[in-house]
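User: structure tokens for this one?
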Amino acid sequence: MKAHSENNAQAAIFRWTDEGWQRLAGGLPQPVNHMPYALLTDLEAPGHVYAGLSNGEVWHSADYGGVGGSYRST
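Assistant:
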């Protein structure tokens, strides 16, 4: 499956807004080269969204997915 191949997922992450589905960009590579396997929010920090990718990276946004910054998970 091409979507699960290394460095070639050609994936995207979307969020729902009052205006419909919106593709997340703001720092995320376009397209995302590794399959997003986990998405989670933080109940104690409203607006924080985390995306875990198949290569071990975790992308974090503090504004509901509007802007992302990359760091490796430990």
